Amino acid sequence: MTKKATSDNVKPMTEALYHKVEPQLLQKMHETMIRARLLEERLIKMSKGGEGFFWIGGPGEEAFNVPLGLLVKKGQGLDHDYLHLHYRSSSIMMAMGAQPIDTIRQMRTAATDPYSRGRNFVNHYAIPEWNVMPVSPTIETQYSTCIGTGIAQARHGGDGLTIVNGGDAGSAEGDFHSCLVWANRPALPLPILIIVVNNGFGISTPAREQHGEENISDWAKAFKGMPHKTINGNDPLESWFAIQEAMKYIRRERRPYLLEALTSRLNGHSSSSGANRVDEPDCITLFEEKLVKFNIMKKAQTEAVWDKIRKEIDDAYAQVKTEPFPEADDIWNGVFADGLDDSYPKKGGS
Amino acid sequence: MANMAQAIRMALHYGEEQLGVREIFGEDVGAPLGGVFTVTQGLKNAWNSPLDERGIVGAALGLAWAGYRPVAEIQFVDYIFNTIDLLKLCGNSLWCSGGKFPAPMVIMTPTGSGIHGSIYHSHSFDSIASKIHGMKVVCPSTPLDAYGLMISAIKDDNPVLYLKPKALLRTKGAELIPGEPSDEKALREMIDAPIGDRSKWKPRWPNLEEYEIPLGKAKIAKEGSEATIVAHGRMAPICLQVAQEMRENGQGDVEVLDLRSLIPYDWSAITQSIRKTGRVIFINEETEISNFGEHLFRRVIDEMFYELAVRPRILCGKAVPGIGLSPVLEYASVPQKVDVENAVQELLAEAA
User: Fold this and answer.
1) Which residue of A has its CA nearest to B266?
2) Quick one: DSSP state of residue A325?
3) Is A11 a residue whose pLDDT tops 90?
4) Strand locations in B63-155, DSSP E?
5) What is the pLDDT of residue A13?
């Protein structure tokens, strides 16, 4: 299996590449990456401080996920992109314009949590207005559900596509292979951007012990003509151009593309393993070094962004602390779309 | 009269013509076969999927989220077990998203024994299905009910698991489906694919009409005053026949309640019938430990204990790992007509 991106093997992007995009875009990426990072750090603190329970999220994936979120054709319905995400996708949501306060609400299991009304773990988004399909704690089912919106979009035409992401460990599940088979059916190829974010671990188990594939993206080779790529997901520009290329192909050809991004995992799997910072390359640090070196931002400017966002997250956190928890009776809402009949058993026994 | 397979096929045709069903899919569901039980023959929106049950359920859920009303098939319920966490996702989609993501979809699948299907074509799934909260579960016993339940299932905004009793798919009903020609042969010629080359065949559909069986509503298949049988699916016609014969033979006046919907179930109909008769037996073909009928049994004990004349009963499959191919083994595992007769006679015989 390909070695994960580290400080030593990350190919430095050329200065020319950084000047291929507007400086405002780089600054926006930088600010969004910091927003996602500081949000996650706040969530971890809440988990450790007893102001929430389990934490799971995506520190270390910002350099791939922020460009992805910025490139999404956002909106509702078949003409827009559908997202079937896993629980490390906070940066995608921040890039799409989600508010950190809403994720903090979910962490605190507040009644105001717009994604699950206090029912689901943090970073489990569900936003119909943006085609963000419900995130499930299962690590693989999104690779099956994405087939459905892919079919709908293949029938519909236009340039909307379906995006699915998951991890290297989840790619061992059958659903990942279901996705590849269904997306490549000669009867109806599907416009799906199939993403595997390879951070090298499944909880505590190193991928190199379990996966004999050279690259996970090599699975695409089984399907004639299916484009695929493994990229350094720790660099936002390499990610930006790779995602852009993949999306351009899918929007035009209405066929699938398999993209593997090698990233760090900066706080372990979840709060179950302590969520402490580990010694892996930090994509934001690497990005800032380049922004300063290429004269796109001054160091003081980058530091000011951290201060600004830190205050934004602190204010959001303070607000959420004043908000109510769900009412116990809320458990009966949403069992069925048409509500519950009076005779539905509600006692929990005799 | 249409058989149950034809009835469901006509309901699906009505669904694709009138109710916006654009995707009907599963293993061998499209041409040329049109389903291993012919349920999807000739449907314009039916297509073959890869042999992948998880993909089928996942695709259906994704389509439902995209605003479609898909109908997907799992070829036999015995093959549905590897989709459990996806079914769970269908059931919990609305609840987990705080009410934002309904999942209007139908998963249909042949269930139960009675075709000498051996270990992997005889399973029942009732109790497991009933544990997937948020998903409705239906199981018809007549072609007309099968037609009406499918139309209601398609229109429902919840995921619906539609269990087709495989032993009944070839049985004919006593009632015409609205729009069905009265001549059985004419119907066959119109909608059954010919044997052999079908590449040029096109069905001629009768002018079907909407007919709904509300989900959650049971049917009194036969009125009676001395005891209540609560059954569904394959066991319902067997129970009905036993009750009719008992009445003719002067052995008792037994009411047969055909549940039709397992989730939600018609508790009101069950309680009303038991209040009338004071005696009840729950009959189904699923195995004991834990059986869907056991839940109803428990609830009767809880809520109607003092209204019962005698202890309630349950008659169901034996708790063994499979249903053997030998008829001796199958009949020893699954309730047969004689078992129903004996159990109901015993229920009537006990002194109050």
Assistant:
1) A343
2) P
3) no
4) 71-73, 105-111, 136-138
5) 54
Indicate the residue of B52, B63, B96 with minimum beta-carbon distance to A152.
Answer: B63
**Residue A214, min C-alpha distance to chain B (Å):** 26
Say whether A337 and B299 touch across the interface (CB within 8 A): no
Chain B: give the shortest CA distance to residue A129, in Å.
10
Q: Does the distance separating the beta carbons of A187 and B98 come in below 8 Å?
A: no
Average pLDDT of chain A to the nearest whole number: 95
pLDDT value at residue B292: 97
pLDDT of residue A244: 98
Which of the residues B97, B105, B137, B273 would you substitute to probe the A interface, choosing the one with the greatest number of A C-beta atoms within 10 Å? Answer: B97
**pLDDT at position A10:** 47
Q: What class does CATH assign to A15-323? A: alpha beta
Contact A144 B100 (CB under 8 A): no
Q: What's the complex ipTM?
A: 0.96
Instruction: Give the residue among B129, B48, B117 at the shortest CA–CA distance from B88.
Output: B129
Q: Which two tokens stand for residue B9?
A: 């096929």
Q: Do B62 and A181 touch (CB under 8 A)?
A: no
pLDDT at B88: 98
Output A247-251 pairs: Cβ under 8 A, ≥24 positions apart: A247/A71, A247/A161, A247/A193, A250/A161, A250/A191, A250/A192, A250/A193, A251/A159, A251/A160, A251/A161, A251/A191
Domains of chain B with bracketed CATH: 4-191 (3.40.50.970), 219-349 (3.40.50.920)
% of chain A at pLDDT higher than 90: 93
Q: What is the pLDDT of residue A273?
A: 87
From the list A147, A333, A344, which residue is nearest B99 (CB)? A333
Cα A293 from Cα A315, distance rounded (Å): 33
Catalytic residue ranges of B:
121
> Which stretches of chain B score pLDDT less than 50?
none
pTM check: above 0.90: yes
Residue contacts between A and B (CB atoms, under 8 Å) = 151
- The answer to whether A343 contacts B70, with C-beta atoms less than 8 Å apart, is no
